Give the backbone structure.
Amino acid sequence: MTSLLVLHGPNLNLLGTREPDVYGSVTLAQIDAELAELGRVHGAEVKCLQSNHEGVLIDWLHAARTDGTAAVVLNAGGYTHTSVALRDAVVACGLPVIEVHLSNVAAREPFRHHSLIAAVSVGSISGFGADSYRLGLLAALRVVRGR
């Protein structure tokens, strides 16, 4: 069975209540449940983890190198624009990574326009709310299954 890892970065634990006009009203628990079900339908095991701590996200990427993970769906949150260390961990894990964002970061504040993660990811999906995660998961499956 294909094993996929979904990593949620800082502040995503507040989804559903944090700036719903930007991020929507869907909670992280709802997104995780939908991703687990979508994975099941497509013959994949989906593990979802969230941390507000950069080092924890890096540790999870390092662990994914050897734990059977086939690909990673990553919403690095604010670290997308600031963390060279997280970018380097994406490279170091050696796995295909799909970058996702709920909002259209290109249409937001100028500091959000540059992603340190995008250049080292297979692709980026943003602006579709919770559907960004679903699209990212499907893209990850297509990448690891060679389609």
